[in-house]
Amino acid sequence: MVQTSRVTPTIAALDRLDALRSALGGVALPLSIAGADAARDARGAAVRQIDDYVEPRLRHLDAPLLAVVGGSTGAGKSTLVNALIGVPVTRTGVIRPTTRQPILLHSPADAAWFGSTRILPGLARVTGTVREATASRAGEDPDAAQIGSVVLVADERVPRDLAILDAPDVDSIADENRLLAAQLLAAADLWLFATTANRYADAVPWRLLDDAAARDITVGVVLNRVPPGAEGEVEADLRQMLGERGLGAAPVFVVTESPLDDRGMLPAAAVAPIRAWLAGIAGDRAERARIAGRTLAGAVSRLAVTARTVAEARDEQIVTVRDLRDTVETAYDDAAARVGDATRDGVLLRGEVLARWQDYVGTSDVFRTIESWYSRARDRVVAWLQGQPAPPVEVEHEIESGLHAVMVDEAGRAASDAWQRVRHSAVGRELTAGVDLAHPSAELSERASLLVRDWQLALMELITEQAAGKRTKARVMSLGLNVITVALMVVVFASTGGLTGGELAIAGGSAVVGQKLLETIFGEDAVRRLAAQARDDLDDRVRSLMGAEAARWDALLTPVEQGTTGDALRDAASELEAAMREAARAPEPPSRELQRSDVIEAEALDDDAEAPLEGEADEVRELERGAGSPTERDR
């Protein structure tokens, strides 16, 4: 029976890896705040490494290793690669950069592994050949337009199960070369890092070597072009520096400066130790597995660190945008509060409003009894029905006009306040570039008018609901629903806070008369409830109106708030680490053949499994045939 104990944890780890990639891809970092640029670069590099290396290596643990030769400009990387193969395959020269397209050298038996987009899926594949030429003319002609491709060269001199990739300079004068070099190094199972006797202390190489130490990747360091006689001193200094950076176990290969032959090649003996080291790794299945596992574990650990760093940057983005949103909402909340104050302090009953109401209630003669006052009020209603002027209607219009004007003015003030406060910061100015929210919306006036009308209708509904009894309903009908509504509005708005002198006396008397009218119909407690409900309803409507004006900022702020949260990113990283630990604890299958067949069987049972990449179907058929395949050789 086929053992599948390791397959299930591996598939679980792949699922967690995919979740982390989705979380990283969903992180929004649009604001130019401190650390955002670095976080965006780190996020992009992490996603590329998942695609280029971590996912394909986790899915195919037994795939051949990829050794990337990297280093600074002029470190002699291409010369080393040519010497390792024994024939000029990659171009050398004094014109920089000489390597634009990376060249991947592999054994013909491993062509299926590298011909597909299993690794480095973002790079196009170009098939190259070894031709008779000097090192200065070897390889492809440098072409900046082909920077997004990799040249595949199959050669029998490359050991099976270990490919060699000649990468661009890590400190190239061309930005695209530097970015590509970093991407290729992140996709490596092991590094062969080349430097020279006079460049080994440069900052750029050491930043990459620090990253190698953090990833726990296997590194071989080539100290190239060392003057004869200085080997011991330079090597000792380099080893000390490596030890201080946590790379003390890295092998150091010293290549003494030697004349090149007529083909531009180093003597074979100069690179014999390097060739032997790589051949030893390629020929030892256990060592290959150890290196692949170590590099994979280190890459996942580094991914988790990067994810948490990006999560912190995401948190900063959220805090910043929430501060901006609070600024906007505060401006409009203050506007709603000012409208509320205006409806409480008597301001809306100034001037014509008071005069029209006074014409109706006649507060100059305080009524002796509620009954006599009610009788006179009823008589006035009869007079209105006979065609005389209708002061309550005018009062209603005056209140509507005043309330509308207050809301429009305060919304305009809020728009200006929010705009100025947001644009006080550099982030706010960047966020608002190309838009104008300093003024209220064009629909504000119409919305405010609708608000007043809807509120008045709601008051009528309140009064109608309150007039449930026959006697109360008869009184309301005798005066008219509109009159009762105006009386309730006057009670809601009348106060002494914003009035002085004669206005104060008139407003106070007006409110008393209006309230007495309502109390005569509904009772004191009912009037108190009606007034409170009417005011609360108006406050809610005003806040809603101001909220709609503030919502115009959503188009700028919401995209920043949407996407993966910092906590979700941290959780995805922790879950991947746990899944990888579980996969590492699972026992090894009895044979490599069983491991491959188990993975194939498990993927076939997965409804969501992706279709094989181009070239991988051939790879599987080759493995099944056993014709020169890695499986047959191990067996």
UniProtKB/TrEMBL annotation:
Biased composition (Acidic residues): 600-617
Segments traversing the membrane: 479-499
This protein's UniProt keywords: Membrane, Transmembrane, Transmembrane helix
Gene3D superfamilies, per the entry: P-loop containing nucleotide triphosphate hydrolases
Comp. bias (Basic and acidic residues): 579-599, 618-635
Ranges where the Dynamin N-terminal domain occurs: 68-202
Domain of life: Bacteria
Region called Disordered, residue ranges: 579-635
Name of the protein this chain belongs to: Dynamin family protein
The organism of origin for this protein: Agrococcus citreus
